[in-house]
Amino acid sequence: MKISFATRLGLLTFGALLVLAGCQASGSSKGESHKTSSSVAEDASKTQEKSLGSHAHEHDHSRAHDEETEKIYEGYFKNSQVKDRPLTDWEGDWQSVYPYLQDGTLDEVFSYKSKHEGDKTAEEYKEYYKKGYKTDVDRIFIQKDTVTFFKNGKEYSGKYTYDGYEILTYDAGNRGVRYIFKRAKEAEGLPQYIQFSDHSIDPTKAGHYHLYWGDDRKALLDEVKNWPTYYPSEMDGHDIAHEMMAH
Predict the structure, then answer these.
(1) Minimal CA–CA distance to 86: which of 144, 21, 6?
(2) Between the N and C ends of the chain, which has fewer C-beta atoms within 10 Å?
(3) Nearest CA to 128 among 148, 144, 149, 113?
(4) CA angle, residues 152, 236, 227, in degrees to nearest 5
């Protein structure tokens, strides 16, 4: 069958239209693909920003927590932040730092304080802490509710029960908390009251502490010149000195 010229022309035109339509469809598809890719990149960027924002928030929160901890360590806190603590917070084997002051191991601490705090000479700091650290109880062992004092080669041991805490305000404006425990029954060589101060105001394991002891609960609260200080017995003098300088 013969096909007329007009018919052939019509078929060619129709084919060209089909090719053109195909190109437009292909271009449209690529455009959508590019748009989707751009959207994914944008979403990924947003996700990354969100992740970075979250990390920054966590970092800020951590920094705020560190600053809050430092404030508490320096004695600035609200009454509502103070919580009861068990005797087990101070459980362990503890040594007095006083012998390390006497043998010169802590001299580097006093030199450091003189350079960085500047209100006393190293020798003046040493005299100040000599009065503060002075004690004849060179070791204390605490296990559950039992406290053992090691004094002049003898051991004195007894049980203590929690007797609350007291918040003290010092002349400088900062404050401290004394956690108080009372001797459960009469025991030779043991004070009726012991009072812990370790810069913490809620339940936490102590890294070191200052201890006050005697038979008059109220009078002990007025004692701010002598504060025998104890660190874990496994630490040597240089470890203790570096720990002191870190605070």
Answers:
(1) 144
(2) N
(3) 113
(4) 55
In the predicted structure, residue 12 carries a pLDDT above the cut 80: no
Q: Is the pTM of this model over 0.85?
A: no
Q: Is domain 79-246 annotated with CATH 2.60.40.10?
A: no
Q: How crowded is residue 234: how many other Cβ atoms within 10 Å of its Cβ? A: 9
Residue 16 pLDDT > 50? no
Q: Work out the mean pLDDT of the chain and round it to a whole number.
A: 79
What HEC string does the chain produce? CCCCHHHHHHHHHHHHHHHHHHHHHHHHHHHHHHHHHHHHHHHHHHHHHHHHHHHHHHHHHHHHHHHHHHHHHCCCCCHHHCCCCCHHHHCEEEEECHHHHHCCCCHHHHHHHHHHCCCCCHHHHHHHHHHHHCCCEEEEEEECCEEEEEECCEEEEEEEEEEEEEEEECCCCCEEEEEEEEECCCCCCCCCEEEEECCCCCCCCCCCEEEEEECCHHHHHCCCCCCCEEEECCCCHHHHHHHHHHC
